[in-house]
């Protein structure tokens, strides 16, 4: 019959084994974690980048596009255009890492924020609370201040305490864009961000993207509505 030997014992160490200097370890870990976080936000090299190399996409057994290559550096933007069903949303999903490329390579050396058709906001929460939930998961500090700033940028302050489910289509779209803005992620991946927006809100969106780029961010935008993004590359599918 096996004897119960109890939990395994730690091997004995020499009295001055440096591994026992516990006080050094948490500090070293804290510094390493902070370095890793900075690295992911801004990229390991300290730069923000997003690149596609000969990327092909297959969905439902059908090749949607192939040979797509582009390089985006800090301040750059690209607009993905093409008819319905050509694969614009699929390209954005590949950039986000949610869909594997059939061929080619995608590299992105920084944090990304993804805007899709769904707002991803909890419909039962007040708008400000729904935004704070996501902001608290970001690596950037001070979620409350980031949310307050985003609400102001999207002209949503008056709606902050309204449950998300009661927002109109355009207001909900602005709220979804506020989530992206509040994330302060260096790479924005926006799928049809102007859908449902009125003229004023489109202008706000354009200003927001411009400010993001001025701050060294990157924007990859799929849109069938015209958006003013000076100097943006066009990726026609
Ligand atoms: N999960 C899936 N499985 C199989 N096929 C899919 C899937 N999702 C999308 N597709 C197909 O992939 C094609 C491209 O879809 P996608 O949404 O990327 O196009 P799009 O260019 O963004 O279209 P739109 O302009 O209408 O938004 C479509 O024919 C669509 O039916």
Mean pLDDT: 84
Any guess at the CATH architecture of one domain? 3-Layer(aba) Sandwich
What is the chain-wise order of helices and strands? HEEEHEEHHHEHEE
- What is the highest CATH level, the class of one domain? Alpha Beta
Q: What is the percentage of strand-forming residues? A: 15-25%
CATH topology category name of one domain: Rossmann fold
Question: By helix and strand content, what is the structural category?
Answer: alpha/beta
Question: What is the rounded Rg?
Answer: 22 Å
Strands, total number? 8
Shape: globular
- DSSP helix fraction: 25-40%
The CATH superfamily of one domain is P-loop containing nucleotide triphosphate hydrolases
Tally of DSSP helical segments: 6
Arrangement of strands in the largest sheet = 5-6-7-3-8
The stretches of 5 or more residues where confidence is low (pLDDT under 50) are 1-40
**Hetero ligands:** adenosine-5'-triphosphate
Distance between the ends: 70 Å
GO molecular function: ATP binding
Protein name: Heme ABC exporter ATP-binding protein CcmA
Keywords: ATP-binding, Cytochrome c-type biogenesis, Membrane, Nucleotide-binding, Translocase, Transport
InterPro entries: AAA+_ATPase (IPR003593), ABC_transporter-like_ATP-bd (IPR003439), ABC_transptr_haem_export_CcmA (IPR005895), P-loop_NTPase (IPR027417)
């Amino acid at each position: 019959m096996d004897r119960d030997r109890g939990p395994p014992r730690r091997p004995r160490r020499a009295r001055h084994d440096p591994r026992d200097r516990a006080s050094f370890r948490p500090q070293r870990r804290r510094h390493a974690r902070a370095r890793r976080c900075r690295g992911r936000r801004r990229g390991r090299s300290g730069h923000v980048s997003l690149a596609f190399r000969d990327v092909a996409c297959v969905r439902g057994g059908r090749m949607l596009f192939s040979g797509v290559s582009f390089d985006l550096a800090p301040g750059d933007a690209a607009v993905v255009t093409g008819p319905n069903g050509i694969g614009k949303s699929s390209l954005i999903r590949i950039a986000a890492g949610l869909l594997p490329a059939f061929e080619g390579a995608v590299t992105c050396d920084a944090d990304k924020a993804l805007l899709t058709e769904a707002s991803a906001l909890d419909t039962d929460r007040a708008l400000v609370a729904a935004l704070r939930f996501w902001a608290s998961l970001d690596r950037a500090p001070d979620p409350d201040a980031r949310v307050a700033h985003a609400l102001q940028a999207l002209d949503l302050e008056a709606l902050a305490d309204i449950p998300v489910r009661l927002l109109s289509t355009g207001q909900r779209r602005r709220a979804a864009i506020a989530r992206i803005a509040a994330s302060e992620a260096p790479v924005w991946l926006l799928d049809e961000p102007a859908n449902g927006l009125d003229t004023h809100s489109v202008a706000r969106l354009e200003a927001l993207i411009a400010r993001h780029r001025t701050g060294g961010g990157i924007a990859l935008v799929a849109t069938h509505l015209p958006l003013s993004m000076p100097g943006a590359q066009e990726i026609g599918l």
